[in-house]
Amino acid sequence: MQEDNNSHDQLKLKNQLCFPLYAASRLMTRLYQPHLEVLELTYPQYLVLMVLWEESPLTVKKLGDKIMLNTNTLTPLLKRMEKQEIIVRERSKEDERTVLISLTKKGLNLKYKAENIPFDLITDMDYPLESIYELKDSLDKFINHITQQNK
């Protein structure tokens, strides 16, 4: 029996939502790489720092929720950052089971070294700023919707 080619259109890569999201994520991470290498940071470490620059200390759980990483992925990352003397991990005095993450002086100073990265990336992309804001807004709504669906 011969299959109708149209019945498998949903399996074509060009028809997938996941692939352009995946490709865009990889390309964005690649754009960040030269800027972060100067600071001796990986992209996930940069995400951790951006959250901690806004609010510190944070529990590992709250930090993981904000950057959408599970504890088992986040813990080795945090251990490496602690060895680099960027963060400090310490047990909460109120609840020994809770680990608090805070910035060291070196971690705080990285904020000033990184402050031009967003502007530099927009310059590197050479893409209309209004389109970037629209895309970010659409992705934020999409992520929020998917997150709510999976609770």
Q: What proportion strand?
A: 5-15%
Rounded Rg: 19 Å
Mean pLDDT: 92
Q: Give a count of the beta strands, DSSP E runs of length 2 or more.
A: 3
How many independent structural domains? 1
Walk across the major sheet and give the strand order.
Answer: 1-3-2
Q: Under the CATH scheme, which class?
A: Mainly Alpha
Architecture (CATH level 2) name = Orthogonal Bundle
Order of helices and strands: HHEHHEEHHH
CATH homologous superfamily classification: Winged helix-like DNA-binding domain superfamily/Winged helix DNA-binding domain
Helix content: 55-70%
Q: How far apart, in Å, are the first and last alpha carbons?
A: 43 Å
Q: Compute the number of helices.
A: 7
Poorly predicted runs of 5 or more residues: none
State the shape.
Answer: globular
- The CATH topology assignment is Arc Repressor Mutant, subunit A
Q: Major beta sheet, specifics?
A: 3 strands, antiparallel
Task: List the defining traits of the structure above.
Arc Repressor Mutant, subunit A; 151 residues; 8% strand
Model description:
The protein is mainly alpha-helical and 151 residues long. It has one domain (30-135): Arc Repressor Mutant, subunit A (Orthogonal Bundle). The chain is built from 7 helices and 3 strands; from the N terminus they run H-H-E-H-H-E-E-H-H-H. It has helices at residues 18-38, 43-54, 60-67, 71-83, 105-114, 117-125, 129-149; strands at 58-59, 87-91, 99-103. The chain has a 3-stranded antiparallel sheet. Helix 1 (18-38) crosses helix 6. The longest helix is centred in the first third of the chain and has 21 residues, at 18-38. The radius of gyration is 19 Å and the shape is globular.
